Amino acid sequence: MTKKEILFVCTGNTCRSPMAAALACKMFDSVSASSAGMAADMSAAASFGARAAMLSEGIDISGHFPRQVDLQMMEHADIVLAMAAHHKKSLCAMFFAQAKKIHTLGDYAGGNFAGLDVSDPYGMDLNFYLECAALLKAMLGACEF
Question: Which of 3, 90, 107, 111 holds its CA 20 to 30 A away from the CA of 83?
């Protein structure tokens, strides 16, 4: 069985999208997940809060380094899941040939999550990161890959 390639996208690729990718890999044997950012600082690393939140899930993302989303990543992905509607809008404008496979995570999860963006925890306290991780986990749990 071939795994579905899921690309998660947020702004800087230091918080939401790497947490989503790490959780998806842990939760689903049927996917291969990666992440990228719309405005990634490739000299940065996963934020302290994101690393701590993932450690609470038994996941180590300390080796994560941000990546800038590009055409090759978009073409390789089976599904692209943006953390917010503004990310989806920008991705569809930049990669219009890939627009059919671009969704927000909330819309892809559906139900009570439809229309819901995942708020950026960057610069917030650890509790906000833990809440973000819990929301990501719940949204992913509602997804069918």
Answer: 3
